[in-house]
Predict the 3D structure of the following.
Amino acid sequence: MNLLEINKRIRQRPPFQMIERVTELEPGKSATGIKCVSVNEPYFVGHMPEYPLMPGVLMIETCAQLCSLVIEPDGLDDSKIYVLLKVKDFKFVKAVIPGDRLEIRANLIKGNPNTGLYEFDVQIYVEGQVRAKGDLMFTAVEKESIYEDTSDQR
Amino acid sequence: MNKEEVAAKIKDMLVENLRIPEELLEDDAELFGGEIGLDSVDSLEIISGIDDMFGVNMTGVAKENFRDINALTNYVMENAEA
């Protein structure tokens, strides 16, 4: 799946679009995706000017975007959105730097359509060596409910 | 499955999925307060775990049914299909 096909399936866009190619996708089960890390990415301006390192939170986001392709291969009911619920046991084994080609793997380990809760085992590899790994949990929420609680605070 | 077996499975799920120390999990120990102190994210995991194990969907169910293992067990016993 190339970038144009990915764009039909996920909502994130540059500079926050992390999956550039999908090499394997088994809907509801697993996926493998690719991201090429460039020194031109905006976050390297501040993280860090002398030693550019990909922030760990963006590695988690990269994995999360791949997971969203596994959960909703044909798009989701327009009124709902999947959100990251829990990050479990994430390890950043070795730094990711400009020039690295990330291979991201996501495997669904628990999924319950009744409750909308999905849990994935994810890993990031560079040249066959693990750089980060952990578990991510997602849930489906009504888009409108996200802003409901803040409307009276304005 | 009798009540004791349901309670034991719920307890195992709470230990395994939410990593609550087993020694804190008396059947009447308050789950969302006191020493255990679960939150709304944990409640989603409980709902999912109960649905997986017993086929009982607790989405939107009143919070008193989540008070402790006894309350969860009673809800499952009353709502599980025979």
Remarks:
- Strands of chain A lie at 21-26, 30-36, 80-92, 101-112, 117-126, 129-142.
- Residues 3-144 of chain A form a domain with the Thiol Ester Dehydrase; Chain A fold (CATH 3.10.129.10).
